[in-house]
Amino acid sequence: MNTPTMAPSSAAASAHVVRKIYGSGDSEVRALDGISVDFERGKFTAIMGPSGSGKSTLMHCMAGLDSLTEGEVSIGSTALAGLSDKELTMLRRKQVGFVFQAFNLIPTLSAYENIVLPLSLDGSKGDATWIDSVIDTIGLRDRLDHRPSELSGGQQQRVAVARALASKPAIIFADEPTGNLDSRTGGEVLSFMRKAVTELGQTIVMVTHDAVAASYADRIVFLKDGKLAGEMVSPTPDKVLDFLKHLGE
Amino acid sequence: MLGLSLRMTLARKGRLVLTSLAIILGTGFLSGTLIFSDTLNKTFDRLFADVFRDVDAYVRSSQFVEVGFGGEQRAQTPISALETVLAVDGVEDATGDIQAFARIIGKDGTPMGSENGPPTFGGIATKSLAGLWTIEEGRLPVGPTEMVMDKATAKNAKYSIGDRVRVTAQKGSRTFTLVGIANYGDVSSPGGATFALFDQPTASEFLLREGYVDAFLVKGDGTLSDEDLAARITKSLDPTLKLETLTGAQITQETQDQIGQVLSFLTIFLTAFSLIALGIGCFVIYNVFSITIAQRLRENALLRAIGASKRQVSTSMFVEAGVIGVIGSFLGFASGIGLSQALSALLNAFGVEIPTKGLSVSVSTLVITVLVGTIVTLVSAIFPALRAGRVPPLAALRDTALEVVDQRVVESSSASSCRRSEHSASR
Predict the structure, then answer these.
(1) Do B111 and B29 belong to one domain?
(2) Does domain A13-248 have CATH number 3.40.50.300?
(3) How far is B320 from chain A (nearest CA, A)?
(4) Segments making up each domain of chain A, as ranges
(5) Residue B116: is its pLDDT beyond 60?
(6) Which tens digits make up the pLDDT trace of B371-415?
(7) What is the largest CA-CA distance in chain B?
(8) Which of A189, B157, B235, B272 lies at a C-alpha separation of 20 to 30 Å from B119?
(9) What is the chain A residue with the closest CA to B414?
(10) CB neighbours of A33 closer than 8 A, spacing ≥ 6?
């Protein structure tokens, strides 16, 4: 299978003492409060935590969608601080893949056009063999001409994951990718993401509050009140639920 | 990316048509008035070219006064000079011509034609080859009690040959016997004007001045060019009479120009109207695009999130505007053809007969309509398109977008409640 070409020593993405503060004075909200974390290359990492713990904010800041108040984030060897809007756009186009909870696809484009959209934006054809193998992995070859509205929710999310993979990005950020799916179709999408990491050598960071979803990951990072609250390697749903129970106390 | 924008635009066919509606209306008015003016101008050009078909030279007084609206009042020409013209070598025939005020009174005693409408004329009916009128029914008038009228007026007033007709002119009101019905060139009446026609002595005496006409219409025998003919006639005329000779082409051109000037008031008015319609269309188009962009906030934010630049998002909206502009303009052009037909029908209903032998639809009208329509659409879409590019990528995640809005609301409401509590505390 494809092996990652980048040096394995450095992380795919990392955050260094990051802070994100909304408002000031009495109404100050610290969404992120001094978090340092590395996301390993070629691994599937989940970010968990109760709502308001800052997990989505962390992901947005790491992906260059939102700006930090303090601290540093980097994708590969690129520090995001000080990048212009244009440079951030290019970074998102070439280095980052996205899977959102819903409304991932452009409704007027076919599944295939959605998959290669990041490449089309760049005016490139991409790696045809790679895109072929991604399409084979999601198993929707016979649906490529369909519009998103003609696909089921699970199929739409698989197309979204395929789109995130198409440009062979350094890292893929997934924000509750199975939040709108039932457990069976959610399982399909998660095993597909798992496959993308194990078999295609991709790096995925996923925000979720679902213990079962998180158990597909290699490692879980727990957040609480904008701070790092723990880590878990080789999780199972039971272990995760157990940890969350302690976290809530 | 251009291909993608086009596909995204064309995928929404229903909306495409709806958005085009404003453009269709605006450009429809524009092309409608353009086609209508073209048709009108061409019709009258053709009409006078037709009417002066057999006129090779035109003799009239060189003395005139301007009377406003591009019109002029010329001095009269003595009929005695006609003998001189007829004697010129190369002249086959010549006749006097009068175009003066005369009003035909209807059977119920009301005058034909309206005060502000097309003019009511009196003139000469002659068998001369150089005459403008051809008798369609009956015969030419002879003597002071006979007349002929144009076919359209006869039809409107329900006059038929043998009827007694009262006519009012400069010399008062008289009654004549209708002996014939005539056509002006190929049409029954040019532009809704009414015509009462008499033999030359009667016309001169009743309409103008005994022994005088407005001009001579001359037909050559074909041995000379019109220029040579005109030069020869001028030479033969007594210079103290102060007469001038025009060629057939010159008098045709002059009449066409005069009519064109009168028509231009109408066409300028209509064009201004269509430009106002387009201006209003601008606001509608601007609004439609603003709404479209608000509706597509998440889609554009998603594009931004996965790596589309501001410029690409704006361009994509701009391409959409361009496609809608072009399609709308073409549809507007098509509806303009219908509109111009409706305008002709409207004028016909008001009694102005536009002898439309088919509409005059020129390529330049199509080009102007499509260009103006597309440019207007693009200009109206500039600001909405730029705004579309400025959408933050984070808006693709609706919850976050709402959070941002909510925060502002919360902040402002808490600030006002603070102020309120301060206010009550101070009391």
Answers:
(1) no
(2) yes
(3) 13
(4) 13-248
(5) no
(6) 999 999 999 889 989 988 888 888 766 544 443 333 343 333 344
(7) 115
(8) B272
(9) A27
(10) A19, A54, A225, A226, A227
